[in-house]
Amino acid sequence: MTDDSLTQCIGDIRKAIGDTDRTILRAIPKKGYQLIAVRTLSLNGDGVPFQGRGRLWTAVGGVVAFALIVVVLLGVWRMQQADQAVQSSGPKASITVLPFADLSPDRDLGHFADGMTEDLITDLARWKEFQVTARNSAMTYKDQPIDVRQVAQDMNTRYVLQGSVRRFGDEMRITAQLIDGETGNHVWAERFEETDDDVLALQDSVIGRIVQSLIGNHGVVREDEYAKTWARAEADLDEYDYYLRGHALFYRFTPEDNEKAIEIWKEGLARHPDSGLLKIKLGWGHLAELIWYSTDTPHTLETVHDLVRQGMSDPSLPPAGHRFGLWLLAEVQAQMGDRSGVVETVQDVVDAYPFDTEGLMIMVGPTTAVGDYAFAEELASRASGLGYRLDPPDYTDVGTLRYAQGDCARAIPLLEKALMTDVATLLLAGCYAEVDRVGDAQRLLAKSSADHGIIAPEDFPAEFRSTPGVAERLTAQLAKVGWPAPPRENPSIIVLPFRDLSPDTSLAHFADGMTEDLITGLSRWRDFQVVDRMTAMSFRDSGLSIAEIAGRTQSQYALEGSIRRLGDVIRITAQLVDAETGRNVWAQRYDETEADILAMHNGIFDRIERSLIGTMGVVHTAEFRKSWARSPMRLDEYDYVLRGHSLFYEFTPDDMVHALQIWDEGQDRFPDSSYLKIKRAWGQYLCNVLYCSEGPFDYKGIADLLEEGLADPMLLAMGKRHGSWLRIALAAVRGDADTASQTAIELAALYPSDVEGLLLAAQYTARAGAVGTAQKMVELAGPLKQRPMPYFYFDAAFVHFILDDCEAARPFLSAGPFPADGLMRAACYIEFGEIDRARRELDRVREKFGLRNLDTPLLDFLYLPDVQARLEATLAQVGWPE
Question: Which residue spans traverse the membrane (predicted)?
Answer without folding.
Answer: 56-77
